[in-house]
Amino acid sequence: MSSNEIREKYLSFFKKKGHSIIPSASLVPENDPTTLFVGSGMQPLIAYLLGQKHPMGSRLVNAQKSFRADDIEEVGDNRHTTFFVMLGNWSLGDYFKEEQLCWFFSFLTEELGLKPERLYITVFSGDAKNGIPKDEESIAIWKRLFAEKGIEAKEGERIFAYGNEKNWWSRAGVPSNMPAGEPGGPDSEVFYDFGTVHDARYGESCHPNCDCGRFLEIGNSVFMEYQKQADGSFAKLKQRNVDFGGGLERITAAVNGNPDVFQGDLLYPLIAKAEELSGKQYQDMVPSFRVVADHVRGAAFMIADGVVPSNTERGYIVRRLLRRAVRHADVVGLPEGNLALLTDPLIASYEGAYPDLIFRREEIVRHIKEEEEKFRSTLQKGLREFVKLSAGNISGKEAFDLYQTYGFPLDVTLELAKERGVSVDIKVFEKEFAKHQEISRTAAAGRFKGGLADTSYETTKLHTANHLLLASLRQVLGEHVHQRGSNITAERIRLDFSHLQKVTPEELQRVEDLVNLKIQEALNMVKREMPKEEAEKLGAEMEFGIKYGDRVSIYFAENEKGDVFSKEFCGGPHVQNTTELGKFKIAKEEAISSGVRRIRAVLE
């Protein structure tokens, strides 16, 4: 069964169960400063898991593009990848454990034909410190489901209970790491048993979380019903949620009985192309072929979502992937300049589900080619410098200089050092790198504090116009419209807002005309400070995801009579009167994720 068939079966199965199919969000998270990339299907849905109503209803399903940078160094075994597709379904205060576990078991055994005796389960063993009980309900449901298949599911044999490290899920990990306000909950994972012989190097006995390769996790149902409080305790959320995630590549591996996800139909075409170009065989250089295929795929998807190679933040991850891919391409003998040729089989594997790869093909190829050329131009110089350093062990400062001067990711330095039998001071490197990243983050924060590139007069004018734009959108499209992020420079406004469907040309014209009308009406921009509760009672607009203090500043756009057109939580700066703005013009309107749209506008 192909990956595409499995994805379509999954979406169709849950659609029949009343779920709305939502599109995959970008790998670049919207208004989420906690992470560089979307690493799970629930990240774009946090607001809805916390109680906000989703425009598509309380039952959702999708196939979400995901990337986890933490797994870069794990790539090389048969299961770890950086980029992957996460099949996900959600209940936003609707169904709970009974329906979720029954449906997923049914999907695996009846839709995909997996033998139930090959499936093993883990559940949450409880957290006495935080007053969270053992998940006895899930255990009872699983025992019944297996019994219906004629299998006795005993604890410790088919069902295994683990604590916070294994069977608790939140974006921040275990409960002790969760910040106040973060949602999370116990989970129940399903593992597939490939039946391989246990490797005693990983312990005396085998179990679902054993690393010997016998078991592969193929799905995780998170029962998200808790929220971390400011005092460190846990309280129940307003609604009980289900947040399911299952890796498409892993489920495909289970269905086809092959534990090597790199031999699946999404990754092996890249490996086959690399074999063709290099004249080498996969089985002879398995780890390096895997690194090349995974890293090219991950970089291509990120470039398609607008992330380009650089030395900071997200761009550094793309650069790190591509430079590590170049290093392993050399190991397998891929001719210089050929890395970008792997994009065609990649696009062919995904074009039906993610057409952005087709639209951005030229850009993807160009960046991969340019990054390979840039790295190779300094590679020889860097290798010569490395040889000088590797006469002895390499200090963290020297490793960082190799990164900063020659573009050597730490992975490359470590691999070269291992080949030569020398060590690298990783801790000092990480300190140097952290200082470098902090400088970059501080600079970025300074440029875009509060969504503003600066506080120049032109930026201030556009910031004021942004208030008029949001109020106009709410008047033309409806009060369901709220700001979901903004980025304002001296040249333009970029406003993200909640709205389900495409804004028609007629609606856009009405919005533009209304903004210009309010500019001509000479509205005053008046700042008033008040308790947060009072501002909320007035109906002042606030940006989702921003935490406000007990006392807030509200900007009113009002005429001389005191008639208010716009009122927003905001710290400024603004012009005194809208007549200073000139003529307002909408340049573009587009969708950026499910239920969120983006407008770009200028002042002429």
What is the level-2 CATH architecture name of the largest domain? 2-Layer Sandwich
Low-pLDDT parts are 443-449
Query: Judging from the principal axes of the Cα atoms, what is the shape?
Result: globular
Number of strands: 16
Cα-atom Rg, whole angstroms? 26 Å
Mean pLDDT: 90
Which secondary-structure class do the elements indicate? alpha+beta
CATH class of the largest domain, please?
A: Alpha Beta
CATH topology of the largest domain: BirA Bifunctional Protein, domain 2
The percent of residues in helical segments reads 25-40%
Characterize the largest beta sheet: strand count, sense, and whether it forms a barrel: 9 strands, mixed
Output the number of helix runs. 18
> What proportion of the residues form beta strands (DSSP E)?
15-25%
CATH superfamily of the largest domain: Bira Bifunctional Protein, Domain 2
Number of domains: 3
| Separation of the first and last Cα atoms | 56 Å
Q: What is the structure about, briefly put?
A:
With 604 residues, the chain is α+β, with helices and mostly antiparallel strands. Helices cover 39% and strands 21% of the residues.
Task: Describe it.
Helices cover 39% and strands 21% of the residues. It is an alpha+beta fold and 604 residues long. It folds into 3 domains: 3-262, BirA Bifunctional Protein, domain 2 (2-Layer Sandwich), CATH 3.30.930.10; 293-447, no CATH class; 450-603, Threonyl-trna Synthetase, Chain A, domain 2 (Threonyl-tRNA Synthetase, Chain A, domain 2), CATH 3.30.980. The strands form 3 sheets. Strands 1, 2, 3, 4, 5, 6, 7, 8 and 9 form a 9-stranded mixed β-sheet that branches. Strands 10-11-16-15 form a 4-stranded antiparallel β-sheet, covered by helices on one side. The protein has a 3-stranded antiparallel β-sheet with strand order 12-13-14. α7 (268-278) packs across α8.
